[in-house]
Amino acid sequence: MSDDQMRSALRRLPSVDATVQSVRQELGDAVDQRYLTETVRQLVDMTRSRILGGDIRCIEMFEPRLQSTLAALVGNRVQTVINGTGVIVHTNLGRSPVSRPAADAMARAARNYVPLEVSLESGERGGRGAELSALMAALTGAEATLGVNNNAAAILLALSALCGGKRVIVSRGEAVEIGGGFRIPDVMRQSGAILVEVGTTNRTNLRDYASEIDEDTAAILTVHASNFEISGFTYKPALSELAALAHSKGILLIEDVGSGCLVQTDDYGLAHEPTLAESIEAGVDAVTASGDKLLGGPQAGLILGTRSAVDAIRQHPLARAVRTDKTVQAGLESTLRHYLRNEQDEEIPIWWMMSRTRDQLVERTARWHAALTDERFRLINTTSVIGGGSLPGKTLPSAGLAIVPGESSPTEIARSLRLAEQPVFPRVENDCVIIDARTVLPDQDEALIETLRTTLPFSGSV
Ligand SMILES: *Cc1c(COP(=O)(O)O)cnc(C)c1O
After folding, report:
1. Phi-psi region of 131 (alpha: psi -120 to 50; beta: other; left: phi over 0)
2. DSSP helix/strand/coil, 197
3. Chain-centre distance for alpha carbon 164
4. Centroid of ligand 1 to alpha carbon of 434 (angstroms)
5. Distance between Cα 290 and ligand 1 center (Å)
6. 298 CA distance to ligand 1 middle (Å)
7. What residue's CA is closest to ligand 1, atom 1?
8. Coil, strand or helix at 219
9. Phi, psi for residue 13 in degrees, rounded to 5
10. Cα of 259 from ligand 1 centre, angstroms
11. Whole-model pTM?
12. How many angstroms separate the CA atoms of 98 and 301, rounded?
């Protein structure tokens, strides 16, 4: 890179004043002049120092960066996307969308004062989360429940409160990475508990656990292998056997069950996913789970179990750092009430998706197809997956639309769908762009058809 190139790049860098002037014409009063000037100044300074540092191509990025920063400043609605991937609990798309009543409850809690920590009867300070405990007691038999930020926080908090400075016994096959670098051995270290691995990757029996329990041992921890499967020559004791062993030695059984499932997945044609009720029934002292996987609620973690274990956890200093806010509490409670009324298949989006039959989805895609009247759309059979680290390798038969590539490549088509005014995330499979009907929310049909109709760079016919 020559000095000339650098000088020419610097010459192309617009002045702060000129940029602010031209941007103001587009934005009007959407952003106050002070903040607009500050934003442009930061971007001009950053671009200049990168050019001086040798990155002359940075000048090409000035305008796109400016546009995306301005879009972030004026964005007056939450960007939503249509999930056509067929992955139901899609972590990158925000896991489970909540039901309409849950969303309304969250908005209502957000807009009002609520009796979060006060008793209506006495006017005195009262405990948080009594409703959550009552709901979970009915649904799972748990004596007490505590809501926290997410399951990762739930495990960290439970281990810190119940096992800090003590040994915790974990099967070698369960000292796993859950995702995003979240590893059981690391969380354990962070909590101050001492990890004692027993058994082998594929087989751990009751004796392996029993032989390591001593007076410095606080608990056995068992972790649901949610995002992978070990099959073949495997063995692990039943949860109730682990509970009996732990209790006979005066220690606790803690379980990270992952998904927080409250229904029998067998009824949906899926493999059996352990339920929270089964864990409580087996005698687990403290179970941790996510609120936004198979429970279908907002992002949260749940810790449920015996009153003494949950009380000890509630009183730990970390509990304050990871507690839920009033909106999440309201959303969780509202979600749980759907299960009490047995209406999850109609009300909770992920269970609505899970309970659609292939015939229903075929009918739905046929309606889309009829509305589109374009030869490039084909009706296809496909398969949806559960996602979110739940039920690995288990699929549901589904139906969808395939877009025959034509002159644009599948990658280009997928990109233009994502960049549409109402973005659609399709799946690219076997050189085809597919929209899986199962994960498209019930009220998104029209928006989907509109995006398909207007976005695709259709030129000529197939
Ligand atoms: C998903 C998962 C976690 C992490 O839960 P978050 O709610 O994302 O914090 C922990 N353990 C298991 C077994 C999981 O499946």
Report:
1. alpha
2. strand
3. 28
4. 29
5. 6
6. 14
7. 258
8. strand
9. -70, 120
10. 7
11. 0.91
12. 15
DSSP class of 389: T
> Can you tell me which atom of ligand 1 is nearest the CA of 153?
9
**400-411 pLDDT per residue, tens:** 999 988 888 999
Residue 1: pLDDT band with limits 50, 70, 90: low
Please give the backbone phi and psi of residue 53, each rounded to the nearest 5 degrees, phi first.
-80, 0
If one residue of 95, 151, 186 were mutated to test the ligand 1 pocket, choosing by the most ligand atoms within 8 A of its CB, it would be 151
Q: How many CA atoms lie within 13 A of 191 on its CB side?
A: 29
Q: How far apart are CA 427 and CA 411, in angstroms?
A: 10
Lookup result for tokens 């800090």: 164
Instruction: Give Cα 140 distance to the centre of its chain.
Output: 23
| Binding-site residues, ligand 1, Cβ < 6 A | 150-152, 178, 223-224, 226, 256, 258, 290, 301, 389
Best of 149, 156, 170, 290 to mutate for ligand 1, by most ligand atoms within 8 A of CB? 290
Which residue CA neighbors atom 13 of ligand 1 most closely?
258
Collapsing DSSP states into helix, strand and coil, what is residue 200? coil
Round to whole Å and give the CA distance between 303 and 390. Answer: 18
Averaged pLDDT of the chain:
93
Contact 151, 301 (CB under 8 A): yes
Backbone angles phi, psi at 8, to 5 degrees: -65, -35
Q: CA of 40: how far to CAs of 25, 61, 65, 103, in Å?
A: 14, 14, 10, 36
Q: Give the type of residue at 94.
A: G
Residue 326 in contact with residue 129, Cβ under 8 Å? no
pLDDT digits (tens, 9 = 90+) for 238-293: 999 999 999 999 999 999 999 999 999 999 999 899 999 999 999 999 999 999 99
CA of 222 to the centre of ligand 1 (A): 13
